[in-house]
Every structure is written in C-alpha cells, then in structure tokens.
C-alpha cells in the first residue's frame, strides 16, 4: 500500500467524519440543551436532500437548492418541535424514543407519498466536479475537498456561535442549568425551538451536500443516524467537541477498516475468505470501537454531563 | 375490552366472506411497495396489472399486499393469502432473501409460485420445486453474461466489486464463471453502504482496465455519482439492477457510457414488446423498467396457462406453465428443466436520450441461450 | 441509574418525586376491572385460535401464534425496561440469536453435519427441548457479556450501547456466509417434541401460549420476590438501595439476563413458526418495534406486552390491507399513543397502576 493511497484514504475518512459531524453536532446540541433523544434526526437529513434535489431540478441551481434544503430542514424541524417534541421534554427517554421512532415512519412514508418511490436526481454543480492534484500526486475529487472545507467552517462557526454570541451563552446556560436560564428571564420555549431548528438545519445541510454524492431516496437518513449516534456516544453526549472528535475518529476508523482489514487478513487466509472476513469485521469495527470506549469511559470521551 | 371483542368478531366475519368466492382464480401478490427500493415492486405490480387489464379477464382476482422488504412480514402475508384467502397462485416477491423465506413453504403447501424477479441459486438447484417457476432470471444470469461479454470484448484486467452478502458473492462468482480469466482484484463493500471513496481509491491504485460491479438500487446510484468526479478513467460494466430506467435518471450524467446486461430492453424489436412499451407509457406515463417487463411476462404466462387448465388441476396447470406458450416481451422464452428461463441476455449502453436524460440503448446480444449452472442439482 | 425515569437530573420527574416507593407490583385482584380485562385478554387469545382451528381457519391460528410469540419477546423486554428501568434498544439481538439457534440446529440436524467438532463434538438437533434450552442458556450468556459492559453506563449511553451491540451482531449475521448471510436460512422441518406433533398449527400455538403464560408467571413471581423489590428500588432510587447495603449492579444484571433469555426463547419459537430465520430479526427496527409494543401496552405492566402485541400486529395487518402508505398511519397512531395515552392500552383499559 503506497503512502499516497494512505493519504487519500485518510482524507476520505476525514471527509466522512466532517459530514458525520454535521449530523452529530445537531443531535448532541439537542440532547445537551433539551435532554432529548431524537431518532428522527435522520429524517431532517432526508428532508434536506429531497428539498435540495427538488429545487435544484426546477431552478437548475445547486446553490439555490442547497439554500432551500437547509431552510426546509430548519422549518420542518421547528414545526416538529412546536407540534410534537416540546411535549416530550419532561417525558422519559423511552417515550422520546417511541415518539421519534414514529416520526421516522411518518417522515419516510410521507416523503414517499409526495415524491414517489423512485430515487431523485441530484449531482454536484459542474464547477465542483473534477478533481485536484494534491502535493505528492494524490488526485482528490474537488467536491469532497469542498465538503471537508464546509465541515471545518461549520465547526468553527459553531464554536464561535456557542462561545461568542448571546444565543450561545443561552445554550451553554441551558446545558448547565435549565432552571436557571428560566429564572434569568430567557424565553426557554423559543430557545428550544431555535436550537432544535438549528440542529435540523445542520442535518439538512449534511443531507443536501451528501445527497449530491449519494442516492436521494427514502430511508437515506437511517444509516447515517445510527453512525451519528455512535459518534456522539463516543464523544460524550452533549459535547460539541466530543462530537467533532468522535466524528473524525469514526470516519477514519470506518474508512481505513474497510480498506485495510481485508488486506490484513490476506496475509494468512485465502483471498476469497479474507475479503469476506475482512469486510464482515470492518462492518462491525466502529461498534466494537464504541463498546471498548464505553467499557472504559462509560460517559464517552468528552462528557459534558456527569 | 369492547374493542377486543369487536376485533374478534371482525376476524370471523372477514374470513367467512373470503370463503364464498372459491370459484374464481385468485392470485396473491406480495411485493415491496414501501420503503427504499420500492420502485421495483411498483413496476412489477404495474406491469402485471397492465397485462391483466389487457387480457380482459374478469374471472381472475389479484390481491396485492406490501411486504415492506421484510422477510417475516412476507412470510406472514403468504400464510394469509394461502390459508385465509385460499389463493391459487402466489407471485410478486422482489428480493432473494424474501423469496428464500417464502417460496419453499408456499410450494410445499401445494400452491404455485411464479417469481417475477429474484432467482436465488438454492431455488434453482437443490431446493427447486415443481410448483416453483422463475419467469425472470436466475441471479447469476446477468453477471455471467457480462463476464462473457467482457471477455469477448477483450478486457483483460477487470476489477470486480459487490456487497458482502450472498447475492453479492454469487454475482462475482457468476461473473468469474463465464469470464474465465483472472481478475485483478475483488472488492467487497457493505450492504447499504453509501460512501465509496475508499473503494474508488483502491480501484484507481490498481492497474485494472475495466470495472464490473453489482450494486443494486441506491448503492449503485451512490457509487456512480462518486465515480464520476473521481477522475478514474476506465470503462464500467454492470447488471441491469444498477441501470434500470428509474435509477439512471437519478444517477444523471455519471451513468453515461456504462454498459449493462439485461434480459430485456425497452427498444428490443418485437411486436409484443412494442405493444407493451407503448401501452405501459400510456397507462403510467413513464418508460417501463425490466421489472415491469418481468411482471408483464409473469401475468401473461399465468393467463396462457389458465386458458388450458385451472390451477386446481395441478398437473395440467403445471404442464401448461412449463410449455410457456405466451408472447414474451423478450421474444423467445422457454423454461429449462428446473423451471428457470433459458434466454438470451442483451447488452445495453447508457446514452443521453432525446430529452437530455440518460437512457438505455440496446447494443446487442451478450450471450445466447444462457442457462443457470444449478439445474443439475435440481431433482423434481 | 435512572434510565427510565427522568430526562435529566435537573428536571425532577413526577415518578422520581414519588421516591416514597410504592412496590412495583401489587397483589392482583382477580375481580377488579383490571383483573377482568386481563382474564378476557388471555381468554380471547386462547379461545379464538381454538375456535378458528375447528372452523378450519388455519391462518388465524398461526396469526395468534405470531402475536403470542411477539408478546413473549416483549414480556422479556418489559422486564428490563418496565421493571428494571433499563431501556434496552438491542433486544433484537437476543430474539435473533434465539432464532438462529433454532435455525442452525435444525440445519445441522437436517444435513446430519455437526455444528462443531472442536473442542467437543456438538451435533445439530431437531428437538425443541434442546433448542429451547440452548436458546435460553446462550441468550443468557450473551446478555451477561453485553449487560456486564452496558450496565456500567446509564441513561442515553445505555440505550446506545445496547443498540451498538445489537448492530454488531446484525452486521455479523448479515455478512457471515455459512448460515445464509443476508438471505437467511430456511428451516425445512419444524423442530419436534416427544409425543406431540409440533407441525400441527393448534399444537404449536398451545406451545407458544404456554411459553407466554410461563414467561408472564415468572415475571410476576420474580417481581413479588425480594429480588423484585430490590430491582424496583434500583430503578426508583439506587442510592437508597446502596445505603441498604445492596449493590444495584448485580441485581440489574441478573434481571437483564433473565429478560434476554425470555426474549431469546421467543426468538427460537418465532423461527420455528416461520420456518425461517434472517438477519432482519436482529435489526434495530425490530428492537424499536419491541419497544413500541411494550409502550403501546403499558410499560411495567404484566399484561402490557400482550395488549401491545395484539394491537401492533393487528394494526400492521389491517392497515397493510388498506393502503401502501400504511406505515405512515402506523406512525401517526404510535405518536398519538405516546402523546395522549401515557399509560398504554392497559392503562386505558384497566386503569392506572397504583404506583403510577
């Protein structure tokens, strides 16, 4: 295995990680501030992708589509918060799991009702296709580089938002003491709606961006959702820093595992068995990683709640 | 509590209604109409129902249920159809794993099953059954045909890729069986995988001169979109499962130039097919996929056999099915000894259509009269 | 650990407010409203299939078997969630493992090949007794391993780590070719018992029914025992339990193992009912459905899982016949139940439990 290939695979891992971060940061924010476990987060990812695909197809502009995708996800998020989620804050996790599980069914089948069973078309705009040659001769798709860039920008923006703005201050206050911010005269109900919509918008952004690389279809949010949960649990639920670290860790481990495990097993097994065994183990790898981390650090690596 | 009693009464009532219509022929269709990948089920259903409508038959009743791509639900629906509704024929299942869950028990209970898609190797070989007919293909057919075609075209160093599950490993084995040469490498992806950057990098790093892949449904869409911007410049080949008319429209320009094997093409030149494609477009406003064609053929096969015998006369009806005396949209159609088709497999290329959207164009025949390799294991 | 009760320690929950613990179980009155509802539920479940069988409607007998088995799996999960406060999002793992044990055992018995030859020779078996015992023991052992790690975590972490373990097993089953991988594995002949004919639909239903009743009896017995009291205390106030000199961890672990063994046995019964196993039995969707059933019926109620299973399977069946968008309506119904019927069907039919 050459070094350039390793670098490329690392980049792939980082790129996967940054997209997972967009999903995971919203999830972890919602959990951190409202204490809500939201299985329907993958649905916002799907809403973002569908809205982007539909608007891109009718306007011809990916950027307008992207804006529409983010807006749609945020709006749907706010609506869901107002109608359903706010009744769940004082409920046990179990009720939250069930209600948001029900929301998955409603969103998936509702989307299919509106858009039909066929996957939608969505591709990167022409000015983002093609590849760039990195130092060392690695060719890397421009669009994926852009995704890494967006991921990094969003991380910085989130950091600034939370550490420098009034909204961020309230979010931090909400994470550490919920009663307190109410006493301070902050409109908690509105804060919650805003945080939920922000999380949904991040998921919608991820769905829109990744939708250009993947199949825009019903149920597309579910695999990402499970990965995002793994990410926030590894990172420590409620911690944005943990989500970033966990996302990169999961992205890199998953990517490298898929590539190098089959090769590793070929050292001492016949090729056909080795690829099968390697692929099977690669599929389990991040869950093993998660179990190991939780066995030693039951609250994740960067726990915000103790 | 009141509700429970009502539920109980409802059960008894609905079953007695079902008993009253034993005269007609009943067909139960279990297919995937909801969730991801449901466009396959929708097309099988629409193709099937189109043939039913065109026949003008009003004695045949078709009951349709959604299996949501879940084997246990499919199994339960099959029981519902057989034990409650007393259907004579079952059909409709899209996925191999669901077929494996349902078909053996259906045929064992003496009901006919006709597969409009899915042809797992076990059902063609050691678990074959006299009441099981596959009207579509054995799973290896299209992959094997592509192996033969690529060898014929002079590709010497293909790299091949499929998800790590039985249909995936079977696909690669089927390809290699008729390709006969050595492949550069075999890549196994995960079921439902959405990011293929790692595999694309491996393909680029290899010295392959061509890529053959089997990534059905959404997996294929994701892969091709990512392939387009990767800058890897070798031709790609696959089976129709990644290149039906609906999927390639979702892939867009990335699919252009890909070649794929199929047992049917909408521009296949025969009278039945012209009529089928025209009437399907008229009825549903879209170009049919191979799944619609398979559903259409399945219905017509059933109708042709019903003219000879009622399914209650099992032997006569089975003989009539085996004769396959119907006009297939594929042109010639006949069954091998294990009730799987012996058929020509075609090569299509994805091109830009008149409307600027990608579409398949028939290139020619990949292999003639292909038969699966499992029939020798089949003892009926 | 307060998995089930509070959202966060900062928002006191009503149920935590009632730390003056009322026992989770109370002496069931057979003559109260609750007792009547329970007897009717169980009676209907027993009598309707028998009637259907003698009227020749085999389908309803098998449907009743399916409901019974799913109810039994939910009884197992209810022990963990409802009584133990351990919100497991991975009980599909035990259901699936139980199923695979039945399937693999039958596969080797049919093929006359040994399951393994090293370190001991383990042949396949088509005896249900062997299969059931193996399912109980192996699912218990798996839960022991998973529980030992998972119970170190609490709250959402517990939900997620149980999910992660189940996913691990799901992916393993999906890509392990020996037993069919994603295609699953058919069971050609239903595993058998001495004397009775298990291929008879009614017989098999009665076996399942017995299993369900036993599982409910065990749960009920367990919760009335000192162990049950300790488990309830661990759920409601583990600090107090600890001050009483009892460590909550082993109590929870034992309850988790028993819960998994019940669900695993249900999985084995399900595999033989369907004559088929596949990784979908292990998927997180199934874990979610089991939770849905427990909540639908009423969390921590002895008859809740049964009521939930009846309702869920019926909805699945009836809605499925009406529209291809049935899952949309299923979602709406579930949402309505969570939002407006907090105590599940049993809460609505039979009134609240005293400690709610």
From TrEMBL, chain A:
Main location per the UniProt record: membrane
Domain of life: Bacteria
InterPro entries noted in UniProt: ABC_transp_permease, BCAA_transport_permease
Subcellular location: Cell inner membrane
Keyword presence, Transport: yes
Keywords carried by this UniProt record: Amino-acid transport, Cell membrane, Membrane, Transmembrane, Transmembrane helix, Transport
Record-annotated membrane-spanning stretches: 20-41, 61-85, 97-122, 142-162, 191-213, 225-253, 274-296
Topology versus the membrane: Multi-pass membrane protein
UniProt keyword Cell membrane, yes or no: yes
Family from the record: Belongs to the binding-protein-dependent transport system permease family. LivHM subfamily.
UniProt name for this protein: Branched-chain amino acid ABC transporter permease
Species of provenance: Halomonas colorata
Lineage: Bacteria, Pseudomonadati, Pseudomonadota, Gammaproteobacteria, Oceanospirillales
